[in-house]
Amino acid sequence: MLNFERVAMRYADGTQALRDVSLEVPAGQFCVVLGSSGAGKSTLLRMANGLVRPTQGSVQVQGVRIAADSLARIRPRIGMIHQQFNLVLRSTVAENVLVGALPAMPTWRALLGLFTDEARCKACELIASVGLHEQHLLRRVSELSGGQQQRVGIARAFMLDPPLVLADEPVASLDPQTSHDVLSLLRTQARERGTTVLCSLHQVDLACEFADRIVALRHGAVVFDGAPDAFDPRLFDAIYGRAPASVRAEATHLEPEVVPPLHMGALEMAS
Ligand SMILES: Nc1ncnc2c1ncn2[C@@H]1O[C@H](COP(=O)(O)OP(=O)(O)OP(=O)(O)O)[C@@H](O)[C@H]1O
């Protein structure tokens, strides 16, 4: 579904954001990218929808290489969910969800806001499926809570039934309970539709609960790639450069052989 082939990113100011990252995300997988601030998570996600062009390597979506001449074809296949929701606050819930249909509309229809009846029905269905009610349809987004706003963001991302959804720290500005609810909703929506999700997170506990696979970045390189149950608490050091006290305490109770050799290798690579 999504393939990063030996990608690297060096920004114009010389910052090396990604180093030789290879990652194949199969169809239907919920893949979470972990990493401390500046590790390269957003750069990786932005590469997957062509907002950032790799300085080395290539990215393919459904076998199509992302390039200037393929972007228009690829974009409608990708739904985006943002950390700050990226909604138009003065517009209604329905209007914001309908925006998700724009990439597949002829420019003139998009400019005039001429959405088809099918798109309007789809928006209503999605608004209901993310747990909002009929009375929310015409409510301004600015009147909603953060959790409700991200539900609108999720509904918008699924408007075109994209095979791939990219979620860049979708719960970073939400409280722990709302974060849990929103991620649970995102995973349910993705599972029901067989959608592939690449989602960056800061919360290791949520990654372990919701991900099929965790990919951890440190200084732009992959230091862990595996299932949540293979994620050893001692990997915190490799990923974040330190372990939170609770995790450190937990890690001291683990026998060394619990860590598979591959992951110990990752620890060494990062040190
Ligand atoms: N447009 C840019 N120009 C120069 N450097 C950039 C640019 N965008 C990001 N960077 C740098 O690239 C590195 C990776 O940034 P990125 O935003 O991908 O990290 P992140 O893991 O998403 O961080 P956070 O969790 O804080 O969002 C950082 O050092 C950042 O400062």
From TrEMBL:
Residues 2-244 form the ABC transporter domain. Transmembrane segments: none annotated. GO terms for molecular function: ATP binding. SMART domains: AAA (SM00382). It comes from the Bacteria. Keywords: ATP-binding, Cell membrane, Membrane, Nucleotide-binding, Translocase, Transport. Coiled coil: none annotated. InterPro entries: AAA+_ATPase, ABC_transporter-like_ATP-bd, ABC_transporter-like_CS, ABC_transpr_PhnC, MetN_ABC_transporter-like, P-loop_NTPase. PANTHER family: AMINO ACID IMPORT ATP-BINDING PROTEIN, PHOSPHONATES IMPORT ATP-BINDING PROTEIN PHNC. This is Phosphonate transport system ATP-binding protein. It comes from Variovorax ginsengisoli. The lineage of its organism: Bacteria, Pseudomonadati, Pseudomonadota, Betaproteobacteria, Burkholderiales.
